[in-house]
Design a protein that fits this description.
about 170 residues, Aminopeptidase, about 20% helix, binds coenzyme A
């Protein structure tokens, strides 16, 4: 499995990944809305490609803010059902975290399974006074500091750009 930034020609394959992973179009639409927005960061949109050239998984980080402070949202991440539970999702997430850390980013927010994301270092965001702009269970709204002390003084409401209104 090769993990690399997405290319223009991957768009249809990425759409298929999310449609099959989530069983609906919303996340695939979100990818496309983010891609057309100012929050899109090409180097943080990664695909997992099989030896046969099939796009098996995709995940992206894009720009959001926490009370005006630049941050990143990890959304969406999906792996095609036939390719799940082989470590691809984990590898995509680790590589996104690595790319963001190397680029000097400070933190990442995720809304997701609280049984899945803690293994990558994500913690409940409410511990830091970081809160979502919509009602969700507190345990599913998580944050990852990309370096020690990165969350010092960071608190408040997370602001998602317009593109996220598609989900
Ligand atoms: C979540 C997802 C991206 C993980 O990708 P993956 O390649 O299957 O993940 P990995 O192989 O790296 O890790 C597998 C582990 O993930 C966990 N996991 C997978 N799906 C999970 C789910 N729906 N809920 C909780 N944990 C889950 C399990 O702990 C699993 O370990 P196990 O096989 O020992 O039980 C993938 O299952 C997926 O696309 N799911 C549907 C879409 C989705 O829910 N996306 C995430 C939104 S938060």
């Amino acid at each position: 499995m090769q993990i690399r930034p997405e290319k223009f020609k991957d768009a249809a394959g990425i759409r298929t990944v999310h449609q099959s992973a989530f069983g609906q179009a919303a996340e695939a639409n979100l990818v496309e809305a983010i891609r057309e927005s100012d929050g899109y960061i090409a180097e943080f949109s990664l695909v997992a490609v099989s030896e046969q050239g099939e796009i098996a998984g995709h995940g992206m980080l894009s720009r959001i803010t926490i009370d005006g402070i630049p941050s990143l949202a990890l959304a969406p991440v999906g792996v095609k059902p036939a390719w799940q539970r082989k470590g691809i999702g984990g590898e995509l997430i680790r590589r996104m975290i690595e790319a963001a850390t190397e680029a000097g980013e400070q933190h990442i927010i995720v809304l997701g399974h609280d049984s899945y994301y803690p293994q990558f270092g994500f913690e409940r965001a409410d511990r830091y006074g970081i809160i979502p702009p919509f009602p969700v269970l507190p345990e599913v709204f998580m944050v990852l500091a990309l370096e020690r002390g990165a969350l010092k003084g960071v608190s408040g409401t997370v602001e998602y750009p317009e593109s996220f209104n598609t989900v």
